[in-house]
Amino acid sequence: MADQAHNRTNEGMPQLRRQGSATQLIVDGSPFLVLGGELRNSSSSSIEYMQPIWQRMRDLNINTVLTPVSWELIEPTEGGFDFALVDDLLRDARSHDLRLIVLWFGSWKNGMSSYIPLWVKQDIGRFPRVQLHTGEVIEVLSTVAEANWQADARAFAALMQHIAEVDGNHHTVIMVQVENEVGLLGDTRDHSEAANRAYAGPVPQALLAYLQAHRAELVPEIRQRWEAAGAKTSGSWEDVFGAGPVTDEIFMAWNYARYLDNVAAAGKAAYALPMFVNAWLSNPEGTPGDWPSGGPLPHVMDIWLAGTAQIDMLTPDIYQPNFAAWCQKYTQRGNTLFIPEMHPNQVGARNVFYAIGQHDAIGTSPFAVDSLELPEQTPLSKSYAVLQQLAPVILAHQGSRATAGFLLDSEQPSVIYQLGGYELEISLDEIFGYKADIGYGLIIATGSDTFIGAGSGFRVAFRPGTSGAALVGIGAVDEGEYRAGQWLAGRRLNGDENDQGRCWRFSNQGIAIERCTVYRCA
Ligand code: DGJ
């Protein structure tokens, strides 16, 4: 049933808002931390299949489910829309007190076009495909065909219009991912006739104007490429960026960005929820086409920023080991961090602390969470239980540089942060000769001389920092929990539990929340 009183721009509708140096997701008027999980690709295509999954999401302490909604299922015949599945997903999410992020499987998913409806698949004349440099035409929609994005945009707009009508006052759907891991696999660029014409033609003025206006801040890869070719303000793609696979990727990035922005614009005109795109990450040994060429990767970030006005975030799917480095790359150029896919295992359960603690992430969303056995016993469930308790404190301090997140191991056994006017040395925990292999967590300077920390396997030594004090000592450490945002202290941790007063410790036996007060003597 439609929300009669629905108002597209009502106050409580999900939106992004700045707080200090951070961008927050605001839902029903308050900041919201996405403790999310993405379903496997096919789970939400059957509402029956989903039945046992909803409770599993609750057992994982997830508050938001990333669920695919596919073009083929909502528009099986041209102009014939069917939103019954969407309505059922909304109903069941609400009854389990879960929010949704809709993942639009439209023109592309993992670079391929497998989710386009059959009537699009079958009509290669009307909906042109990519051609490889070998001449082979592949089953992937071409970015340079207007009919392609027009058809996708019509379907996406219909979906967003429907969500506006049935959810505009509920706000069960809080964000939308537009397409999935776009980019061309198997070649550096599209070599169809239309694509070759566009490639030989002039670089659009909008992109050139952007490069000139942002020259000093461009990501190094784009700035160097453009300047090495003479920082030209007009010319063909090869005039402006030089020849080669890197330029092919830049060309593809522009065309994907423009296509997705057109799709997003049509959706936002119907219902302006925050929208983001995600990336299959590159690797230093390969070339574009080994990863989807033209996807929203950090080294082409400025091309995406220049080409999109309706996409609010570029987001990484981080399965690679260097999690922290990828998070850092995705905070360049003022981009807000959200991680729509990452490992759902023990590694992911540690990394969520880092993304949220160190980079003010809007949230995290490990992939394939519906396949986790015994959900309530998983590391992810335990991490999210702690982050759920801490969410009000985390959100209150986002954007004020009062929070640090860290991942410690034998390669990086300690880090030093300046927080709350002190210097904090955070290192792998060690007591009576036993050293933790892994440490992770976050620390928030919540008030004068007061810190809240959460995590496992680390210890914190305080130093005067800029305070000018002669001595800094630990006043008291308490373990505890937050109930409805209120701190409830448990044990007073002293003796072995704070190494006889030397430091603030988090043992590696589980994940704890602790509060520490420090004192200083002049
Ligand atoms: C990344 C994709 O975005 C997901 O949809 C899924 O295919 C995973 N890879 C598989 O690991």
List keywords for this structure.
single chain, 522 residues, alpha/beta, 6-stranded antiparallel β-sheet, 14 helices, 29% strand, binds (2R,3S,4R,5S)-2-(hydroxymethyl)piperidine-3,4,5-triol
Descriptive report:
- By secondary structure, the chain is an alpha/beta fold.
- It contains 14 helices and 26 strands.
- It has helices spanning 47-59, 71-74, 84-95, 118-121, 146-167, 193-200, 205-213, 220-228, 237-241, 245-270, 301-307, 323-329, 346-359, 379-397, and strands at residues 15-19, 22-27, 30-32, 34-38, 64-70, 99-109, 129-131, 137-141, 173-180, 275-280, 313-318, 338-339, 341-342, 363-364, 403-408, 414-419, 422-428, 430-431, 434-435, 439-447, 450-456, 458-463, 471-483, 486-492, 504-506, 512-521.
- The strands form 6 sheets. Strands 12-14-4-5-6-9-10-11-13 form a 9-stranded parallel β-sheet. A 6-stranded antiparallel β-sheet has the order 15-20-21-26-23-24. It has a 4-stranded antiparallel β-sheet with strand order 16-17-22-25, with no helix packed on it.
- Mean pLDDT is 96; it is low at 1-8.
- The site of (2R,3S,4R,5S)-2-(hydroxymethyl)piperidine-3,4,5-triol has 7 residues, from loops.
